[in-house]
Amino acid sequence: MPADLVRFGDDLELDRVGFELRRSGTALKLERIPMEILFLLVERKGQLIGRADIVARVWGKDVFLDTDNSINSAIRKIRMVLRDDADKPRFIQTISGRGYRFIAKVSEIEDAPASEPPATLESPLDVPGADVPGAKLNDKGERPINLQQLEPSAEPAQAAFAANSTVTPGRGNRGRAILFLSVATLALSLVCYFLFHRSSRLTDKDTIVLADFTNTTGDTVFDDTLRQGLSVQLEQSPFLSLVSDERIRQILRLMAQPSDARLTPEIARDLCQRAESTAVLEGSIAKIGIHYLLILKAVNCASGETLASTEAQAGDKNHVLDALGEIAAGMRNKLGESLGTVQQFDMPLEQATTPSLDALKAFSMGMKALTTVGVSVATSFFKQAIQLDPNFALAYAWLGLCSNVVGEPTLGAEYTRKAYELRDRVSLSEKYLIMARFNKQVTGNMQKAEQACQVWIQAYPRAAMPHTFLAGSIYPNTGQYEKSVEEGREAIRLNPAFSASYSISMLGSIDLDRIDQANVIYQQALERKLTNSYFLLPLYEIAFLKNDAAGMTQQVKAAAGNPVVEGTLLATDAESAAFFGRLKNSRELSRRAEDSAERAEENETTATFIAVSALREGLFGNKEEARRSAILAVDRSTGRDVQYGAALALAYGGDDRRAQALTDDLARRFPEDTVVQFNFVPTLRAKLAADRGNLAEAIEGLRVATPYELGQSTFSTYGWTALYPIFVRGEVYLAAHRGAEAAGEFQTILAHRGIALNSPIAALAHLQLARAYALNGDKIKAKAAFQDFLSLWQNADPEIPILKQAKADYLKLN
C-alpha cells in the first residue's frame, strides 16, 4: 500500500488523501488526468510505465479513444508544474517508444496531514466521482456523472438540525429561527451560485467570434499568430463552434469595413451581434520584464458582460504557445465543455501546429489571405511556413487543398501525402480532414474516405466540413447523388455562411435533374448575401438544361478574368458547342480555356482540357487529331484524369497500343483508387477488347463498373468523365448485334440529363439509340431518334465524319 504522503525534489509533496501536489506547502494546479499519471509514476518509482499501464489506470482497459494525445498532453503538463526538462530530466524520464520512468528519490511520510477540502468548485461538474478512472464514456465522449452527486446531501442538514435540537429553555423559538435563517441563506447561496455560474456556460447551439489579440509587446510576430493559434486550439473542441473567417469577412463588408480589418473588441462585438453569435473572445498579450502575460476574456456581445476569464504566464518568448494552450483549455472548461473532453482533445499547440512562431505567423497570414486576397497569395505564405518548419503538417494539408482548388490535383496529392505522413503533428479534428483527403486524393479509396468522414462526424457533430467533403468530393465520384444532396443540406445547416456548400448542393441537385431545387438553394445563398465565383458553373449548367443560351453566355462573361474559374467556364462552353456539332467553335473555346489555365500556371488543368478536346475529336471520328492532342496532353501531365482522357481518346483514335500502355499504367499506379479500378480501367479495357473483337470479354469486364457507372470525377475539372462505362457498353452491344440491350444503355444516358448535361456522348446517345432501334428492326423509333440527333446538329459543321455517317445511316431507313 503506497504511503499517503511522499516527498521528492527539494520542496515537493504528493498527498494521496487530499489528491494534491504541493511545493513548499502551497498547492499547485494540476488537472485530474496528469495528477493520476503522476501518482502512478511515483507509486512505481524506478519502474518503466508503459502507455498501456497509464491507459488502464486513468481510463480503464475498454476505452475506445485516441489516448496518445491525452497522455502526451498530461506528461507535458506534469513537467511544466514540476519544472522538469524533458532533455535533462530530474523527475520523469522518457524511454523512447516504451514509456516513462520516475527517477527522483522519493521519501515516504507515515502520517499525512489532513487535507482541507477545496472551498469552491471551478465548475458545477467538478464534483467527486464526476470523472472516475475507468468509467466508460457516453456518446459525446464525456464520462457519465452520477446524478446523485449533483444533488445536495440531506445528511449535513440533518446533522445540523440534530446538533441544535437540544436548546436552552426559553430560547427554542429563537434557535429554530436562527436555524431556519441559516438553512434559507445556504439554499439561496446555492441557487445564486448555480444561476450565476450557469450564465457563463454556453450551449451546443451557441457560436463564438474570435477577436484579434491586443499586442502591447512591440513584437509583430504575435500579430495574427495568436488568434490563429487560439483558433486551432479551440477547434479541437467538439463542443465549441467558431464563426468562420469567411462569414467574418462577409459581415465586415456589410459593415463597410475592409475585409482584412483588425477585429478590435468594438468591431468584434458589433460583428458578433450581426452574426447572431453569443460571445466574443478577446485576448491580449503583454510583456512584463522577460515574462509574457496572456489574458483571454469571453464577453457577451449583446450585454458586454464578461462571461469568463483566464490568464497564463510564459517565462519567455519560446513558451508563449504553451501559455496560449493553457488559457484555451481553461476557457473551454469555463464556457461549459466537460473536463473530460477538454483533456481528451487538448493536443499542445506546438504539436498541433509548429513550435516556430515565425512559421505559425506565415501560416496565419496564409489563412487570412484565403478569405481576403485569394488562393495564390495564401499558397505563397503556406510555402513559406514549411520552409521555416519542414514538419509543419497543417501547412502541408492546406497546400494540398489550395493546389486542388487551382486545378493541380497531382501536386496537391504530394502535399496531402506529406501531411498524412506527419498526421501525428496535428489535432484530432485536422487529422480526420487529412485522413479523408489522403484517401480521396492520394489512394483514391472512396470507401476509406467516406469512413474517415463518418468517424469525423461522430467525434465533431457540429463540424460542417465532413458533410461538405462527402457532398462534393466523395458521393459524386461513386454516383450517390441523393446522399450528396443530403450531406450538402446538412453542411448548410451547420454552417450557413459557407458559400461552397451551396454551390456543391446546387451541383448535386442538378445531377438529379432537380433544377427548381438548385435554384432554391441559390436563392438561399443570395438571401445570406453570399457571393462566390463557384456559383458560375452550376448556374451555367442550369441555363444549359433550360436551353437558355443568353444565360450560358452571361456566366462565361462573369468568369472572364477570374483565374480560378475562367478556364473551367470556357471549357464547359466548348462542350456545349460540341454538343450541338459546332466543332470549330468548340476548338476555339477549348484553346481559350487552355490559354487561361496556362496563364494561371495550372499545368494539369491545361493538360486536362487538351485531353477532353482529344476525346471529343475521337468520338466525332477525327482520329488523327484525337491522337495528336492525346499525346500532347500526356506529355504535359501524367495526372489521373488526364491519362484516362488521353487513353480513351487514343482508343477512339485507333492507337490501341498507346491506349493499352496508358491503361496498364493507370491500373498499376492507382491500385486502391475506386474510380480508376471500377470505372476508368474497366471502360478502357472494354473499349480495347471490343476493338480486338472480344465482345463477350468487353461486356463481362464492365460488370464491375455497374455500381459506379453514374459517378463522375471531381478530381480536376468537374464531371466530364460521367457515364462512359454505359456508353461503351452500349457500343459493345451494338457491335454484338444486341439491339435491345444497346438501346437500354443509351436510354439510360438520356434519362440522366443532369449528369450527362452537355457532354459529347449526351448528343451521340441519340444517334447510337437510333442505330440500336434500327438493328432491332424498329424503323419508326429509329427514324425518331435519328431526327432527334439531326435536329440537335442542324447547325453542325458539315465535315464532321460522324455526322456524315449518321446522315448515310438515316437515308438507309427510307
Distance between the termini: 103 Å
State the strand order across the main sheet: 4-3-2-1-7
Count of alpha and pi helical runs? 38
Give the biggest beta sheet. Answer: 5 strands, antiparallel
Strand content: 5-15%
Describe the structure.
It is built from 38 helices and twelve strands. With 814 residues, the protein is α+β, with helices and mostly antiparallel strands. Strands 4-3-2-1-7 form a five-stranded antiparallel sheet, covered by helices on one side. Helix 25 (566-579) packs antiparallel against helix 26. The radius of gyration is 33 Å and the shape is elongated.
Per-chain topology:
Blueprint: E1 5-8, E2 12-15, E3 20-23, E4 26-28, H1 32-43, H2 51-58, H3 67-82, E5 92-95, E6 99-102, E7 106-109, H4 147-150, H5 155-164, H6 172-199, E8 208-210, E9 214-215, H7 225-234, H8 245-254, H9 265-274, E10 279-288, E11 291-300, E12 306-314, H10 320-334, H11 339-344, H12 349-352, H13 357-370, H14 375-388, H15 393-405, H16 409-421, H17 428-442, H18 446-459, H19 465-474, H20 481-494, H21 499-511, H22 515-527, H23 536-545, H24 549-559, H25 566-579, H26 583-599, H27 603-619, H28 623-636, H29 640-652, H30 656-669, H31 674-691, H32 695-701, H33 724-735, H34 739-751, H35 753-756, H36 760-775, H37 779-792, H38 801-813
Parallel strand pairs: 8-10, 9-10
Antiparallel strand pairs: 1-2, 1-7, 2-3, 3-4, 5-6, 10-11, 11-12
Helix pairs in contact: 1-3, 5-6, 7-10, 7-13, 13-14, 14-15, 15-16, 16-17, 17-18, 18-19, 19-20, 20-21, 21-22, 21-23, 23-24, 23-25, 24-25, 25-26, 25-36, 26-27, 27-28, 27-29, 28-29, 29-30, 29-31, 30-31, 31-32, 31-33, 33-34, 33-36, 34-36, 36-37, 37-38
